[in-house]
């Protein structure tokens, strides 16, 4: 038997078992969306890239459970468990939704037949509460963490924007308060996104410190108008060196006022 023929048999058996099906994390996504006024609604879909029947290291293999939680600003949008429905991929699954707080919604599902394919996992119908915008922070786990999942960066965003806004003029929502929101993802490697809101114009200072209070890098140090902003940190220092693994503090200031802090965990 030739070596070439033996190699062919090995490759055939590996492909037959789906050995290469889950070498990379499976992408989970959700689209940006807008609601035209408070009280209006919009539906978004939580989707998955292709999942093979033998993904994961469970015994037997396959994705047979999903746990996902969405975090959002309850001042901008709202949702209840009754506003969640299963997508076509989860036909035949047992699932339920619940809410432990006004700012989050959790959905858990399980089955005996492994998930196969790509498409919609769940649909979420949101109701606008007030004009503004909010990131939708997604936490999602297949089985007990295998196969791995890749979450969208930056996170999807929901906006409540008046329908009468001139399309030629960008609409800027003026936040009621200044705030530094949790970074996403967290923990992260190699980069993470920080979102913040400024209620009044001024000099904005956003910097990263280590736990000893030493400056690691400055992300923003400039005048900004009132509004919502995003900035990414790629895990480097002011000298473009890679910061080591550990916990860091993001600190936001407006003029002479300290707005807030957030803990960031960098994993190398």
Low-confidence stretches: 1-21
Order of helices and strands: HEEEEEEEEEEEEEEEEEEEE
CATH architecture of the largest domain: Sandwich
Q: How much strand content do the residues show?
A: over 45%
Helix content: under 10%
Report on the structure:
With 268 residues, the protein is mainly β. It has 2 domains: 21-160, Sandwich (Immunoglobulin-like), CATH 2.60.40.680; 179-266, Immunoglobulin-like (Sandwich). Helices cover 5% and strands 46% of the residues. The protein is built from 1 helix and 20 strands. The protein has one helix at residues 3-16, and strands at 26-29, 33-35, 41-51, 65-71, 77-78, 84-86, 94-98, 104-110, 117-128, 132-135, 137-142, 149-150, 157-160, 179-180, 192-198, 202-210, 215-224, 227-233, 246-254, 257-266. The strands form 5 sheets. Strands 1, 3, 5, 6, 9 and 12 form a 6-stranded mixed beta sheet that branches. It has a 4-stranded antiparallel beta sheet with strand order 7-8-4-11, with no helix packed on it. The longest helix is centred in the first third of the chain and has 14 residues, at 3-16. The protein starts with a helix and ends with a strand.
């Amino acid at each position: 038997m030739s070596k070439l023929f033996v190699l062919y048999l090995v490759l055939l058996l590996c492909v037959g078992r789906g050995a290469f099906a889950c070498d990379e994390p499976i992408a989970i996504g959700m689209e940006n969306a807008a609601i035209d006024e408070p009280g209006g609604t919009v539906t978004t879909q939580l989707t998955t890239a292709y999942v093979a029947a033998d993904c994961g290291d469970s015994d037997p293999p396959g994705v047979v459970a999903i746990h996902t939680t969405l975090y959002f600003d309850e001042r901008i949008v709202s949702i209840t468990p009754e506003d969640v429905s299963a997508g076509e991929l989860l036909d035949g699954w047992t699932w339920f939704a619940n809410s432990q707080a006004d700012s989050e919604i959790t959905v858990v599902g399980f089955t005996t037949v492994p998930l196969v394919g790509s498409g919609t996992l769940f649909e979420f119908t949101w109701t606008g509460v007030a004009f503004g915008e909010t990131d939708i922070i997604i936490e999602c786990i297949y089985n007990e963490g295998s196969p791995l999942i890749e979450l969208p960066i930056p996170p999807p965003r929901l906006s409540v924007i008046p329908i009468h806004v001139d399309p030629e003029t960008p609409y800027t929502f003026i936040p009621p308060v200044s705030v530094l929101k949790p970074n996403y993802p967290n923990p992260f490697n190699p980069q993470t996104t920080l979102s913040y809101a400024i209620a009044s114009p001024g000099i904005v200072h956003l910097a990263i410190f280590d736990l000893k209070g030493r400056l690691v890098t400055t992300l923003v140090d400039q005048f900004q108008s009132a509004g919502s902003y995003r900035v990414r940190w790629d895990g480097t220092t002011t000298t473009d060196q890679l910061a080591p693994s550990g916990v860091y503090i993001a600190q936001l200031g407006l003029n002479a006022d300290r707005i807030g802090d957030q803990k960031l965990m960098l994993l190398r």
